Amino acid sequence: MFTKMIGATKLAVAATAMLGLSACAGFQLDNAKGLTPSGDAFSAGLYKEYLVLAEMEFAEGDYMDSDTFAARAIASANGKPPAPEELASRDIPAAAQGGLAEARRKLMEALDGGARTAKPDAAARAQASFDCWMQEQEENFQPADIKWCKDRFDAAMAQLGTPAPAAAPKPSITFANFTVYFDFDKSTLTAQTQSTLIDAANAADDMAATNIEVSGYADRSGSEAYNMALSQRRADAVAKELTTLIGAKAPAMKRLAFGESQNKVVTPDGVKEAKNRRVKIEIRK
Questions:
Q1: Residues 219 and 256 in one domain
Q2: DSSP helix/strand/coil, 208
Q3: Its pTM surpasses 0.70
Q4: Which tens digit of pLDDT belongs to each residue from 172-231?
Q5: In what order do the strands lie in the sheet with 278-284?
Q6: Which residue, 61, 71, 68, 78, is CA-closest to 31?
Q7: How many angstroms separate the CA atoms of 186 and 173, rounded?
Q8: Do both 89 and 212 map to the same domain?
Q9: Which of 88, 125, 93 is nearest to 110 (CA)?
Q10: Which residues, 6+ apart, have CB-to-CB distance to 8 below 8 Å?
Q11: Is the residue at 3 inside a domain?
Q12: Closest C-alpha among 202, 224, 201, 215 to residue 254
């Protein structure tokens, strides 16, 4: 490429090509120049990228590769973009085959994942740079040129990003539970309680719930009888609001009252405890 110095062997080959094959090689570039791409943005991008590579190889006397890239430019301009080169199409050194194979796999994954449409310019640059890398790796005597192609490929692939994995199906939810808390000696719903009940109603709707159990509790600051009645009022308030939020699809709700028994936090009698002033909601499909 830019830094290529043609060695004796390649110079001899180039000279032979000029003398014996001038009628066959090196003239696709003229056919490729000045075309108006008729395909999509990806095809147009490939045309420009391959045309640049064809011109660079022609300038260095590598007429065979110039023709290869020019032919790819022409196909792209005609709306028939070629696929990235197969590894088998070139004589790649064994030590480089693994890296190129993995690079092509990632490239195809990106292209088949929608990159041609989502980011056509970067996708075209990635493909052409991969083919550039293949061509330079086959020659395998200009490390700087190999690096130039590879770096350009890596930069384009970074622009494409990693294709997002397919979304996993949502697991079937058959149970959900929520807890709401009350102020001391109150059964009225707070703003925070309302927010939790909205979440509970949404969960019931999402799973098409067939059963909802609402259990009320109280702390031990009053008498057992008073706390039993208070826990019932709390359960009733929650059940009523849930029924309103869920609407016509609301299933029958089982209301339970446990008073000051089954406290979440064990306390001596007469102790106020916020975590015991609660209603537990269990939703089942």
A1: yes
A2: coil
A3: no
A4: 789 999 999 999 999 999 888 988 999 999 999 989 999 999 999 999 999 999 999 999
A5: 175-181, 278-284, 211-216, 253-257
A6: 71
A7: 33
A8: no
A9: 125
A10: none
A11: no
A12: 215
